[in-house]
């Protein structure tokens, strides 16, 4: 009888559940809502405590090669990414991209945050056959991207594009109002 009563009491207690929900964003909208689009190389990655040591956030310093949107006259920009690790403490934020110093990236930013988490972070890697810089879709973003491996999820027609073609697409969208 006590077990039954305890089970009923436990079932009636409210439970708070938190979740991260990422709604897919179209590229046109990604360009439109971003206040800054920067192409550059990750110069520094370090984590710091936030919320009175309740969680960790990663600060990513990007040495800017060019700004595709936004009239910034700075050499580098610091981006805040939720999650990270400080010593033995780690905060995991599903959907947040991870960066390493030396990564070449194109980031779509609103303020000092990446729009759509990993959806607004594109890696630039050399094409295996031509050696030309190629932009890799966020769906395959990993620390060691091999553009030769096939992509199973998503559109099978999706292919990495050259950096020049990626820039041209962004410029065309900006010329048309980004919407």
List the helices and strands and how they pair.
Blueprint: H1 2-12, H2 27-33, E1 36-50, E2 55-69, E3 76-82, E4 84-86, E5 89-91, E6 104-110, E7 113-114, E8 121-126, E9 133-136, E10 161-162, H3 163-175
Antiparallel strand pairs: 1-2, 1-6, 2-3, 4-5, 6-7, 6-8, 8-9, 9-10
What does this 3D model show about the protein?
The chain has 179 residues and is of the alpha+beta class. 17% of the residues lie in helices and 36% in strands. The chain has a single domain, classed as OB fold (Dihydrolipoamide Acetyltransferase, E2P), CATH 2.40.50. It is built from 3 helices and 10 strands. The strands form 2 sheets. Strands 1, 2, 3, 6, 7, 8, 9 and 10 form an 8-stranded antiparallel β-sheet that branches. Strands 4-5 form a two-stranded antiparallel ribbon. It is elongated and about 70 Å long. About 8% of the residues have low confidence.
**Portion in strands:** 35-45%
The helicity comes to 10-25%
Number of helices: 3
Reading the helices and strands in chain order gives: HHEEEEEEEEEEH
| Number of DSSP-assigned strands | 10
Oligomer: single chain
Number of domains: 1
Broad CATH class: Mainly Beta
How does the major sheet shape up?
8 strands, antiparallel
What is the CATH topology?
OB fold (Dihydrolipoamide Acetyltransferase, E2P)
Low-confidence region ranges: 139-153
Using the alpha-carbon principal axes, give the shape: elongated
Distance between the termini: 63 Å
Report the C-alpha radius of gyration, rounded: 20 Å
Broad structural category: alpha+beta
The second-level CATH architecture is Beta Barrel
Which whole number gives the mean pLDDT?
82
């Amino acid at each position: 009888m006590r077990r039954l009563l305890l089970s009923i009491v436990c079932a009636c207690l409210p439970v708070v559940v938190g979740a991260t929900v990422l709604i897919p964003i179209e590229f046109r909208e990604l360009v439109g809502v971003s206040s800054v689009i920067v192409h550059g190389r990750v110069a520094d990655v370090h984590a710091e405590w936030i919320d009175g040591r309740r969680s960790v956030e990663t600060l990513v310093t990007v040495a800017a090669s060019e700004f595709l949107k936004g009239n910034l006259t700075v050499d580098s920009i610091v981006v805040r990414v939720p999650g990270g690790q400080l010593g033995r403490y780690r905060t995991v934020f599903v959907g947040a991209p991870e960066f390493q110093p030396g990564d070449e990236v194109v980031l779509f930013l609103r303020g000092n945050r990446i729009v759509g988490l990993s959806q607004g972070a594109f890696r630039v890697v050399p094409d295996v056959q031509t050696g030309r810089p190629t932009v890799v879709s966020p769906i395959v973003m990993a620390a060691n991207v091999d553009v030769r491996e096939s992509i199973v999820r998503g559109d099978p027609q999706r292919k990495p594009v050259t950096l020049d073609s990626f820039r041209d697409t962004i410029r065309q969208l900006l010329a048309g109002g980004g919407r």
